[in-house]
Amino acid sequence: MRLQEILSAVPGLEKRFVHYLESQGYIKPVKIQKVRIARRDYSTTDLERVRAIWLYYQRGISIARAYELVARDRGTGAYVFLPVPIRGWQAALDHLHRSDQVQEAGVIYGESADVIVRMRTAHESDVHAVLDRLFEERLIAGLPRVYRYGQTTPGFGGPEPRRTAGERMKAWILIKVPAKQIGTLVDQLRTFPGIVEASGIYGETDVIAKVDVPNPDALDDLVTNHIQNIPVVESTRTFIGIGRMYWERDDTTPAP
Fold first, then answer.
1. Are 26 and 49 a contacting pair, CB within 8 Å?
2. What does DSSP assign to residue 227?
3. Which of 156-170, 213-227, 237-251 shows the lowest per-residue confidence on average (mean pLDDT)?
4. How distant, in Å, are the alpha carbons of 11, 43, 102, 120 from that of 99?
5. pTM
6. Which helix (H) or strand (E) holds 64?
7. Domain 155-248 maps to which CATH number in 3.90.950.10, 2.60.40.10, 3.40.50.300, 3.30.70.920?
């Protein structure tokens, strides 16, 4: 990939900014020798790293600090519950898909939220950058709730069950548990079929679990006969995903 392609892919990016990142070793394009001067061949990883550092720099964060954030383990993130009017559901999903920080988003049945979002949040500004754009487009009709999870928080995630179109359903379960029991609970959730991801989070709810099950009966059985029967569980709240109003970013997309 040539330098001009990098500049075209990142709005406002300056040539000298890219050269500075290379001089500091933050990106490592391959040098292709020519008769008079070597040409740089940039990889997709270089592009994503330049884009991410440039976005942080535009928010007023130093280049060195931006690089630290981009290079950080991707385990740090947040779940955000958004109140969105029904006519804005699809627009909100489409808008969220355009943000590189957002990993997945879906419409849910809930009393105080309509859309659930999972995003990478290496820096506080990552959440604000996504929410600010949603507010600017008037897609949010209330105050979002943010639940953060850290890279040292007990959690797991693996390949989801094989799906047959129209037969499976998604849900997210907020589980209240004593702080000292978070690790124990996450380990136990690991053994339950249907739970594909779980993380300890900061806030009034202590664990959030993502569920993929074949039907409502399977969800009822998982919640009432398994999760709620765990002695340390104090309470649960279940948010059920609505049909096909959901997307998840491909994990094979190169990391910044």
1. yes
2. I
3. 156-170
4. 14, 21, 6, 10
5. 0.77
6. helix 63-71
7. 3.30.70.920
